[in-house]
Inverse folding.
């Protein structure tokens, strides 16, 4: 059966996780002791934070019923204080099932919780620590309030190195009957920058075109999947078509459902994939950064990005 | 505002289209969930701890509608008192003694020895502004609502029936002698209905009434209503009287300006101003909210200028004005509005190159398309949320990166698409927005069929769902904030015995 590879090949046991050697050693020892503290997993995307949390829960609770005592929540989707007061609290205070000593809540992307919610979480963590352990994950531990950090064992996940990723990909190569040339591997590394989730995702798309993965195949399939819509926000104004670019932006926001911050982060990425004079590229980069900053400050995404489009048009007419 | 008690006639659209079902109440998901939870707390044999509910919110957002819908969903009868009743202490006390104290009443006028337990909701509308006034009531007596607030407190304390108090202003009810209501009642707040939700409802009504209504008018009505669904619906009814086709020009009847007329003049005054001063003056006369004015301006920058330098200048000015508006939104620092206003007026200086005004000013397409595409945006968000659960990540992360590749994979490999649909529990509309509407109906059907077959094998995507507990936790939370005295702390620890004292010491 065809599945999504990122899930199909997600390690079920700690011993199957690649990289993070030191962290794994410590986690293993703690799991063997049968009791765990609260954890804070910090590190970039695709380095194994979620995988380790899931594997730990499986090993601690064992058997089929492990999910009964394990609750996974994503703070980015439910970021308000209400989620702490409702979902988290009611899970935390219910007794563990099936004779388990405690339950585990995995709160992913905890750095997107509001300050209020984090303060409420801190009390909940304390109050129910008899029956419930928290594993928080975040990209930047600095965004977690100190009182929570001090209640957690902090584990810092580092980007995976090439050898680790290569080892992991070998499992997929064997099972799926695909081959990845050395060249293709380097390309994969370049595209995904040590993010294993992205690596596997890109690989699956390429493999849907051909089982022999080479560099060209990776580039062409990732170009196909690449959101050209985003690139248009740069190319249209560069051709002096501000009006069309404006309409296109509206499409992306209204029909595509993209948020301004998403558009900005994708524009940032696309900027370096498009052919243009490097001087212009730097000026555009500066403007994108400014818009990003303003959005964080609470400005309106539409007006700000429109101003960016006008600026891109101006920059390219001056040079062109 | 007063609604004739119990009367449901088709002559008023606000009554005719009053949602009878909680699920049809637009834009109040959380408060509705809280109402339901409270309603269910009456299902057991024991009386719930909180027997009275205060619904707070601006006029016309659906408070009474929600209370009535709750009663009908729970199968309760309703005894309703509102502005047209005199609500002095005596009448409320009467209600309390005759109805509220008994759990066995069946009809409006009091108790019987009926076998079936049919609860009766006691609904006090406009409970915030009618009590303890000494003004004479309509029938000439001087009793009014005097002492009514104390009677309400008593009613809430004694009642064995669900009591719902509806207020615009909570303080009006809980001030003075009503203070204890703060603790004894569950409070639910209804927020303003969004313009998009109102517009959607208006369109629905128009289609039911077979009236063709210009989209511009729908937008204008829903914006003008400012969150008041009832006023929007009654405005619409007024305009529709005897017509099968209505547009913005018909709106003059309501005494509201033709939006386009005045705003187009403002745009003209700014874009063609001879000096900054004149432009600022031109801005003063407009009655439009500055937040939508900026949308009108950005929409029409292209109409007013064409040279890239001019467009850039104009857009940079607008973006700076917007920063100030953002600060106003964030910090409620309304003084900053002035800077935004003047920066917007400075658009008059942006055009340095010759330009011929050829086009007419345009209505901000953004306002229109945001309301039109609300559903597809909602579907996209839901799709990414559900996929995120399967991939153990947030909808943001799904949206930001793998979504494009997943969509491509689904288009290329229907078996995989079926798998994803089954795992994430996606529906047709989700698959549609996910693949950008490019996929053929037959292919979609094939995928959905495949997913159904797979669903049997599907593993549980999530852990057990726990019931939401709300509101009452609030006070508990506040109490926890108090640092316990050493004695209390020691006692608590002894009691629990297990309290964690160190990180690894469990």
């Amino acid at each position: 059966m065809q599945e999504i590879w990122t899930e199909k090949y997600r390690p079920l046991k700690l011993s199957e996780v690649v990289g993070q050697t030191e962290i794994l050693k410590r986690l293993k020892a703690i799991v063997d002791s049968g009791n765990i503290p609260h954890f804070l997993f910090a590190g970039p995307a695709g380095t194994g934070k979620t995988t380790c949390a899931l594997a730990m829960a499986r090993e601690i609770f064992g058997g089929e019923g492990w999910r009964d005592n394990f609750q996974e929540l994503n703070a980015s989707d439910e970021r308000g204080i209400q989620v702490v007061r409702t979902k988290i609290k009611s899970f935390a205070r219910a007794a563990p099932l099936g004779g388990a000593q405690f339950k585990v809540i995995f709160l992913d992307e905890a750095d997107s919780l509001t300050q209020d919610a984090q303060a409420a979480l801190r009390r909940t963590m304390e109050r129910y620590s008899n029956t419930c352990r928290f594993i928080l994950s975040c990209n930047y531990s600095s965004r977690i309030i100190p009182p929570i950090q001090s209640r957690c064992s902090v584990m810092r996940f580092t980007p995976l190195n090439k050898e680790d990723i290569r080892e992991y990909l070998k499992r997929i190569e064997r099972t799926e009957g695909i081959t990845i040339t050395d060249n293709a591997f380097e390309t994969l590394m370049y595209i995904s920058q040590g993010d294993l989730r992205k690596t596997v995702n890109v690989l699956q798309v390429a493999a849907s075109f051909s089982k022999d993965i080479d560099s060209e195949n990776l580039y062409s399939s990732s170009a196909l999947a690449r959101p050209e819509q985003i690139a248009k926000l740069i190319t249209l104004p560069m051709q002096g078509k501000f009006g069309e670019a404006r309409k296109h932006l509206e499409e992306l926001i209204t029909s595509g459902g993209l948020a301004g911050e998403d558009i900005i982060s994708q524009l940032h990425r696309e900027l370096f994939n498009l052919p243009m004079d490097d001087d212009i590229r730097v000026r555009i980069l500066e403007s994108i950064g400014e818009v990003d900053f303003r959005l964080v400050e609470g400005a309106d995404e539409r007006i700000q990005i429109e101003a960016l489009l006008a600026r891109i048009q101006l920059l390219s007419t001056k040079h062109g | 505002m007063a609604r004739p008690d119990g009367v449901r006639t088709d002559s008023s659209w606000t009554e005719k289209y009053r949602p009878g079902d909680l699920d049809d109440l637009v834009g109040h998901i959380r408060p509705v969930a809280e109402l339901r939870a409270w309603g269910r707390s009456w299902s057991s044999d024991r009386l719930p701890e909180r027997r009275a509910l205060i619904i707070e919110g601006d006029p016309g957002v659906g408070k009474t509608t929600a209370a009535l819908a709750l009663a009908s969903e729970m199968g309760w009868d309703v005894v309703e008192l509102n502005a047209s009743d005199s609500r002095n202490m005596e009448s409320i006390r009467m209600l309390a003694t005759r109805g509220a104290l008994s759990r066995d009443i069946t009809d409006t006028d009091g108790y019987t020895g009926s076998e079936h337990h049919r609860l009766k909701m006691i609904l006090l509308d406009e409970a915030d502004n009618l009590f303890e006034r000494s003004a004479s009531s309509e029938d000439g007596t001087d009793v009014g609502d005097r002492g009514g607030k104390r009677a309400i407190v008593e009613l809430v304390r004694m009642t064995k029936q669900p009591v719902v108090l509806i207020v615009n202003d909570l303080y009006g009810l809980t001030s003075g002698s009503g203070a204890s209501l703060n603790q004894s009642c569950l409070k639910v707040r209804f927020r303003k209905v969004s313009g998009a939700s109102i517009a959607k409802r208006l369109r629905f009504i128009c289609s039911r009434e077979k009236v063709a209504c210009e989209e511009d008018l729908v937008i204008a009505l829903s914006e003008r209503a400012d969150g008041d669904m009832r006023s929007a619906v009654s405005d619409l009814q007024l305009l529709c009287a005897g017509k099968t086709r209505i547009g913005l020009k018909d709106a003059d009847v309501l005494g509201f300006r033709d939006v386009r007329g005045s705003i187009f003049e403002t745009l003209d005054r700014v874009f063609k101003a001879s000096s900054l001063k004149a432009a600022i003056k031109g801005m003063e006369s407009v009655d439009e909210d500055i937040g939508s004015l900026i949308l009108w301006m950005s929409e029409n920058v292209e109409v007013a200028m064409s040279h890239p330098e001019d467009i850039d200048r104009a857009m940079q000015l607008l973006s700076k004005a917007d920063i100030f508006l953002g600060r106003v939104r964030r910090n409620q620092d309304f003084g900053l509005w002035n800077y935004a206003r003047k920066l917007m007026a400075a658009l008059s200086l942006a055009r340095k190159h010759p330009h011929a005004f050829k086009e007419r000013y345009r209505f901000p397409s953004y306002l229109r398309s945001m309301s039109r595409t609300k559903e597809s945006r909602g579907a996209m968000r839901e799709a990414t949320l559900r996929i995120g659960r399967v991939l153990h990540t947030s909808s943001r992360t799904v949206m930001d990166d793998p979504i494009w590749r997943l969509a491509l994979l689904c288009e290329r490999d229907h078996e995989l698409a079926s798998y994803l649909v089954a795992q994430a529990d996606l529906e047709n509309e989700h698959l549609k927005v996910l693949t950008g509407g490019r996929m053929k109906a037959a292919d979609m059907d094939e995928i959905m069929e495949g997913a159904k077959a797979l669903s049997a094998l599907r593993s549980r995507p999530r852990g057990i769902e726990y019931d939401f507990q709300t509101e009452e936790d609030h006070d508990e939370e506040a109490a926890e904030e108090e640092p316990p005295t050493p004695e209390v702390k020691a006692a608590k620890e002894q009691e629990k015995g297990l309290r964690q004292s160190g990180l690894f010491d469990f």
In short: The domain at 227-319 of chain A is CATH 1.20.272.10 (Zinc Finger, Delta Prime; domain 3). Strands of chain A lie at 39-42, 70-74, 103-108, 132-138, 153-156, 179-180, 212-213. The mean pLDDT of chain A is 87.
